[in-house]
Amino acid sequence: MGTDYQQARSALGARLRELRLRALLTGAQLASALGWPPSKVSKLEHGRQTATVDDLKRWTTATGTPQALNELTSRLQGFESHIRSWRRQLANGHGPVQETWNAEIRRTATIRVWEEAVIVGMLQTPDYARHMFLSYTRLHGSARDIDEAVRARMRRQEWLYEPGRRLHAIMWEPALHALMCPPSVLAAQLDRLAGLIGMDTIELGIVPLSSSLKVPTANGFWILDDRLTITEDWHAELWLDDEESVSLYATVWNALRESAVYDADAHRVIARARSALHRP
């Protein structure tokens, strides 16, 4: 968990503790009033658990400080806008998460993306996307709204056919071989990738395994109009809108781009992966 995020969560916890002490309540008394285990009060106050908006409402009511709710909610939104835990995001399934992405993409003209392990989402076939959502549903134990999520991801691809849009996508060659789906599904996915080469709204680059790298491949990320970078880890998605972070990811993307091949060379790498699916 990022240092800035943890500091912000700890600061929120300190403020909650201050409100409790002003109300002359012990942690056990407040927990009893709220119907919580005492450990929850302790975790919130020491920054070891992130409060929900409902937690904040109940806390301010129990401590007689409803006027502090707006301040606390603003603090929470401030750091949760940067680190969005999968547990929270997927509480209502994958569909709403995809629609959040769709809204952000709709107001974007230029996208730069790097993927090291899977096919770029905006270039996925429905079947490939379905298997991706299935794997993450099993991992996170989230709601199985897979069809809704696939439809939302496919709607996002309409962006590729609008004038003035530009997707600059780079993938590492292993993403073309990863069998996160049946071979037949991956074969159709690779055929789609090959067919997209030369489309005027898409620049598709592949970094072959044989390429020299200036930076480690690390994790995938998206840069939207030089205003926002979105990347993810197993526990959360990071939405970074500060100039320093966006600039850093742009530097990484440009370094990876220097190792990529395009056009006919990219087509050959894709064809090689496609042929490998038929080897015994």
Walk me through the structure.
The protein is 51% helix and 13% strand. The protein is built from twelve helices and seven strands. The protein has helices at 3-22, 27-34, 38-45, 53-62, 69-80, 86-89, 94-106, 126-140, 146-156, 183-196, 243-257, 263-276; strands spanning 83-85, 110-115, 166-172, 202-207, 221-224, 228-232, 236-240. The two termini are 43 Å apart. The mean pLDDT is 93.
How is the secondary structure organized here?
Elements: H1 3-22, H2 27-34, H3 38-45, H4 53-62, H5 69-80, E1 83-85, H6 86-89, H7 94-106, E2 110-115, H8 126-140, H9 146-156, E3 166-172, H10 183-196, E4 202-207, E5 221-224, E6 228-232, E7 236-240, H11 243-257, H12 263-276
Parallel strand pairs: 2-3, 3-4
Antiparallel strand pairs: 1-7, 2-5, 5-6, 6-7
Helix pairs in contact: 1-5, 2-3, 4-5, 7-9, 8-9, 10-12
Find the count of extended strands (DSSP E, 2+ residues).
Answer: 7
Count up the helices: 12
Q: In what order do the strands lie side by side in the largest sheet? A: 1-7-6-5-2-3-4
H/E series: HHHHHEHHEHHEHEEEEHH
- Termini separation comes to 43 Å
State which percent range the strand residues make up: 5-15%
Mean pLDDT reading: 93
Radius of gyration: 22 Å
Biggest pleated-sheet summary? 7 strands, mixed
CATH fold-level label of the largest domain: Endonuclease, Chain A
CATH class categorisation of the largest domain: Alpha Beta
Assigned CATH architecture of the largest domain: 2-Layer Sandwich
**Overall form:** elongated
Structural class label: alpha/beta
Quaternary structure type = single chain
